[in-house]
């Protein structure tokens, strides 16, 4: 039986999980714990800042899209692997912000602030909606 994720927000939920493991979980069942993924607010701030970077800061002589800036900055954050593309160029492997924990997303936003500040870009206070 597959159960949906349970967010341990209250003592009652913690007790429920402990009781379930002790009384109902089948032998061989795997239990794992992980930090919650990024919030909607973090995601909105991310895309707002990526959009600002795209509009205000060329990279290596080129205008990058917000998604391209996301690839560039997540690759920097995770020290990702770069390989030669099938038809030339370079490809960054992996970079899914939807799977990042809240703390990792905070690290990315901090990296983005430092990246922008080093290049004279100050982010506005307003978070803009970005449709992907």
Write the layout of secondary structure elements.
Elements: H1 11-23, H2 40-56, H3 66-78, E1 82-84, E2 90-92, H4 102-118
Helix pairs in contact: 2-3, 2-4
How much helical structure, as a percent, in the residues?
Answer: 40-55%
Q: What's the overall geometry?
A: elongated
Order of helices and strands: HHHEEH
Unreliable parts: 128-132
Main sheet makeup? 2 strands, antiparallel
Domain count: the total is: 2
Distance between the termini: 35 Å
Q: Which strand order does the major sheet show?
A: 1-2
Class by helix and strand content?
Answer: mainly alpha
How much of the sequence is in beta strands?
under 5%
The protein's oligomeric status is single chain
| Name given to the CATH homologous superfamily of the largest domain | NinB
- Beta-strand segment tally: 2
Compute the number of helices: 4
CATH topology name of the largest domain? NinB fold
The Cα radius of gyration reads 20 Å
Task: Estimate the mean pLDDT confidence.
Answer: 86
In CATH, the architecture of the largest domain is Orthogonal Bundle
CATH class term of the largest domain: Mainly Alpha
